[in-house]
Amino acid sequence: MGLQQLQTAGLPDTTRATDVEHLLCWALERSSTWLRTWPEHELSATEQQRLDSALQRRAGGEPVAHITGHRGFWSLDLETDASTLIPRPDTETLVEAVLEEVPARPLTLTDLGTGTGAIALALARERPQWTVQGTDRSLAAVQLATRNARRNELTRVQFLCSDWCAALAPHSQDVLVSNPPYIRADDPHLQQGDLRFEPASALVAEEDGLADLKRIAQQGRAVLRAGGWLFLEHGYDQADDVALLLIDAGYEQLQRRRDLGGHVRVTWGRRPQRITVNPA
């Protein structure tokens, strides 16, 4: 019944079965493993009502993560709400790039525009020797990320309100990471799928989606230590533009990483080890 309901609503074939499973697990308050172990379980009246309500909301286009109030990311279970972006699998590409590129020695890392805290918390879980924090200009996002730190027992990760690097001291960071807004204001995808229910401020940037990426690259130079890394997630067709932004801002040793769909999704560079000062 659930699949038919979502099919009638025009939801993608690729996600319908997964959506129904997630909503059924939520209605039963059970895991997917339990669901597969006990497929003959008959829903109680209360469980059926919860499932019917959830399916109706999903058929109306509401994201599963908003209905259930949580989303898995990396090895984390994150609380989600309408105040910020829903964590997506493509962003795990950014986490992978940082873990592979940056040495596993003690250092300081900040996730800019942290939202749910997904990136900061994933990196903190994998690198307990790192000092990790996240910033966001939205107080609601900072509060959500803080709850997620407690939820995943990563309370050493701190979150604070800041407009990108504004609250960071000069030359205080070894690594900056960010998944900022990078969608063009006229992108038709904004009127489709889950994006319709997510805050435009976390999705859309001026200058053809490049304004915040440019701002982070420029501000990052001031707060990174010599040799520090800046990792940026960006749109599938923005790799060359982002590379130029990083070069113009003075970063070196640029590298790229592709996402699950084969698109270049993450670009990063390093602040020079030596800062050359032009004579007056």
From TrEMBL:
Residues 4-69 form the Release factor glutamine methyltransferase N-terminal domain. S-adenosyl-L-methionine binds at G113, T114, G115, T116, G117, D136, W164, N179. One of its GO terms (molecular function) is nucleic acid binding. The keyword Methyltransferase applies. Substrate binds at N179, P180, P181, Y182. One of its GO terms (biological process) is methylation. Its EC number is 2.1.1.297. PROSITE patterns: N6_MTASE. Belongs to the protein N5-glutamine methyltransferase family. PrmC subfamily. Methylates the class 1 translation termination release factors RF1/PrfA and RF2/PrfB on the glutamine residue of the universally conserved GGQ motif. This is Release factor glutamine methyltransferase. It comes from Natronospirillum operosum.
